[in-house]
């Protein structure tokens, strides 16, 4: 456990000790064994049937889910006293990363083990869990989560589905249509949100067999074709009153807490998918020849491989740093307490900003990865005979579901600023210090003997810059800043890059002494490339934010701060990229 448990968003104003973060190098033998079991399951049970799954022969998906149940992969989050394994979030995320190489099957798995199961675990009564949980965690039944409607996507609380109590008081009668329901075609249990008396947003556990539940046709999708996505139509669907999940009118808690969990798990899944896509791109680059040379020998291709390797390293570092934050926080909660799950979900909600960051950064990394892998393939990447084409199509949904990346950016910066205005984070006081730093020339010498000091200095400078811009925004707009979405998006982009860059640097600082000289060189190269790329993105966002918030002399002053605080000495960048690329090309996979 970390020496200090940080608050959500606090990474922006405090310096973290590298020993206080969790990294992939901290996995136990048990965790590595679970990861290996998951990899073998995908290789032996899913990959051989991938074509049938892509053709929507869902018998293979259902069979795969049952085999997952036999291996214990569906019960990692379930309480031990109810037949589960109750493993930590790091393990859960590791399994999500490894299962991601199964393509469309991983979508069914993620929906089932995440938003399909966790609402029952966290909010279900003892009777509800006794009736349904064993079926769900063994794979006897598949589950689904029904929140989105044709007229309400990001505005989840704008749902129009209704629930009216029957005259005899034994059932609720549900009417409405749910849209884009993953596992809709074969799920046996649905968590469905509807408004009691058309105003009290509430969750219900609905069996497929209940009268009035109709499964719509499969959507014709761009990607993840092997996953089931349907409408669920509620036509006077009769749901027993004992199947209300949680409290009437409190469905928003279930919906949003489930999405927080879905976001950090998605971060792990897309990281695994990025590793797989990168390996495919490198293999092809080693096979393909042009001008009598392997294309992997060309600098233009090597730069792509280097940039992707560094980005995936940052993505992986971020994901497992977040896992450590969550596990450290959850370990402080007394098991067996009457309000255990209430405290548990508050613990997860504490890191809602970081969950949003994980979702955005990691899905953006996967998007960049598959795009470059198609580019490395050239014309062949546009042909379905090559897996690069499927990777490209399958990736696109990750920036949409679990809350679009735009919504997650707004939530990330919005939640941080909201906590600051409530006094939960001393952002305003730190902003004043940042403004003082802006107006005070710095003559401090950098101690080159400190590992990664250039990167650490850059991170600290970007934090100062975030505080300057957010402070200027709050001063100008006060509580109306929440309506200035363009400014919030720019602030989020800076915060996202800070968290990712810092995660990469802290991980490197923690592990570098344990590595061979060659591996140390590769690690330093990854940190340099990741820091350079992240700083460029943050600098662009900061400059844009400055023009949006200020004008005149104040703008001029902030722009000078942008130039000052986004300086990063990336001397040796070309050699760093070549070091990374050559190492990855040699082993034909992600190297960390």
Automatic annotation (TrEMBL):
Cited PROSITE patterns: ACYL_COA_DH_1 (PS00072), ACYL_COA_DH_2 (PS00073)
Catalytic activity: a 2,3-saturated acyl-CoA + A = a 2,3-dehydroacyl-CoA + AH2
Residues of the Acyl-CoA dehydrogenase-like C-terminal domain: 461-564
Single Gene Ontology MF annotation: flavin adenine dinucleotide binding
One Pfam family hit: Acyl-CoA_dh_1
InterPro entries: Acyl-CoA-dh-like_C, Acyl-CoA_DH_CS, Acyl-CoA_Oxase/DH_mid-dom, Acyl-CoA_Oxase/DH_mid-dom_sf, AcylCo_DH-like_C, AcylCo_DH/oxidase_C, AcylCoA_DH/ox_N, AcylCoA_DH/ox_N_sf
Domain Acyl-CoA oxidase/dehydrogenase middle: 144-237
Keywords, ordered alphabetically: FAD, Flavoprotein, Oxidoreductase
Residues covered by the Acyl-CoA dehydrogenase/oxidase N-terminal domain: 28-140
Domain of life of the native organism: Bacteria
Cofactor(s) the protein requires to work: FAD
Domain (Acyl-CoA dehydrogenase/oxidase C-terminal) ranges: 249-411
Membership in a protein family: Belongs to the acyl-CoA dehydrogenase family.
Subunit structure and binding partners: Homotetramer.
Record's protein name: Acyl-CoA dehydrogenase
Protein source organism: Desulfuromusa kysingii
